[in-house]
Amino acid sequence: MRVLSGIQPTGRFHWGNYFGAIRQYIDLQEGSKQAFYFIANLHALTTVRDPKELKQLTLDAAIDLLALGLDPQKATLFVQSDVPEVSELCWILMTGTPMGLLERCHAYKDKKEKGFSADAGLFTYPVLQAADILAYDSNTVPVGQDQVQHIEVCRDIAGSFNHQFGEVFVLPKAKVLDNSAKVPGIDGEKMSKSYQNTIEIFELPKQMRKKVMRIETDSRPMEDPKDPEGDHLFQLYSLFASEEKQQEMADIYRKGGFGYGTVKKAIADEAESFFADAHSRRAELEKNPHKVEEVLKDGATRARKKAAEVLDRVKTACGI
Ligand code: ADP
Ligand code: TRP
């Protein structure tokens, strides 16, 4: 069984990315026989148009994932563009993809509805994603809820190719990641690069503390008892603190007589120690960029081997 997923290097990873996606990718590397994870730089090119920035974000994404526990002995990590077979497969798939299918996809639809002009890259984004998945005979694709539509499109494209040319593709299934606890940002809304309310995983501790201290709160008097359920500070604290500490904090909320500053300080303390090992692993990796490049090169070799085999099957089936 092959697990595969991609993550776009469109910004430095934040707490939401970690709890909503990255941590679960890392957990999945344990159980599955083969886990393929890649940095989707071709997809990111639809938004990041500064070459230096895209290169740096791609390398940073690889270093971040390794520092957070992605183990190249257990999972294959590579950069999307290092497997050119995927782009070739993308063209072949595009020839059988109805325009209507892509017109319904939300990224393109949202942009058009807002009156922006979209380019062909954004329009055909889901076909490249389908090629990413199908090129490796992937069975399971862990993704956030927002990506489920793209997996359905992938299944549609693969199904109609198989119908026309024989059983060439493995039909993948989405595994919807548990982000029921959507990580709130510093304004209390969902943490997202697009809302500029993020706290990055590898922010310097001092910087991180400053951001935590700026998290918006309500102005209820200190002495009022408060319900921890649904409170975004308590939600953030719970991501990092042990069960026991969460209980203690919940009791403090219910009693009242505390300031939000105390909770913020506790969040910063817990977050700092939670990511301390990852921070030191990252510092080591930064000193050895060639080591990271080796991992990516090795990952690409493994990924290309599989993609070439699938592409060969595809070409034979359709007469190329
Ligand atoms: P952003 O919203 O910052 O652009 P992405 O869309 O690149 O983030 O998200 C990458 C992954 O991280 C997705 O699988 C998404 O579900 C997850 N994710 C992003 N933000 C959050 C959040 N605030 N809470 C939980 N998961 C999140
Ligand atoms: N579109 C995905 C996102 O924005 C990233 C991605 C690209 C992906 N190709 C993929 C995810 C293939 C899963 C499988 O999050």
**What does the radius of gyration come to?**
22 Å
**Structural domains: how many:** 2
The CATH architecture designation of the largest domain is 3-Layer(aba) Sandwich
Question: In which order are the strands of the major sheet placed?
Answer: 1-2-3
Please provide the count of β strands.
5
Oligomeric status of the shown chains? single chain
Helix proportion range: 55-70%
Main pleated-sheet profile: 3 strands, parallel
| SSE pattern, N- to C-terminal | EHEHHEHHHHHEHEHHHHHH
Low-confidence stretches: none
Topology overview:
Blueprint: E1 2-7, H1 15-31, E2 34-39, H2 41-44, H3 51-67, E3 75-79, H4 84-94, H5 99-103, H6 106-113, H7 120-123, H8 125-134, E4 140-143, H9 148-165, E5 173-176, H10 205-213, H11 232-240, H12 243-255, H13 260-274, H14 276-287, H15 289-318
Parallel strand pairs: 1-2, 2-3, 4-5
Helix pairs in contact: 3-14, 4-8, 4-15, 8-9, 10-13, 11-13
This protein binds adenosine-5'-diphosphate and tryptophan (TRP).
Residues 5-6, 8, 40, 43, 129, 132-133, 141, 143, 147 line the site of tryptophan.
What does this protein look like?
By secondary structure, this protein is mainly α. The protein folds into 2 domains: 2-182 and 289-318, Rossmann fold (3-Layer(aba) Sandwich), CATH 3.40.50.620; 203-274, Tyrosyl-Transfer RNA Synthetase (Orthogonal Bundle), CATH 1.10.240.10. The chain has helices spanning 15-31, 41-44, 51-67, 84-94, 99-103, 106-113, 120-123, 125-134, 148-165, 205-213, 232-240, 243-255, 260-274, 276-287, 289-318, and strands at 2-7, 34-39, 75-79, 140-143, 173-176. Helix 4 packs across helix 8 and helix 10 packs antiparallel against helix 13. It is globular and about 75 Å long. 38% of the residues are buried. The model has no long low-confidence stretch (mean pLDDT 95).
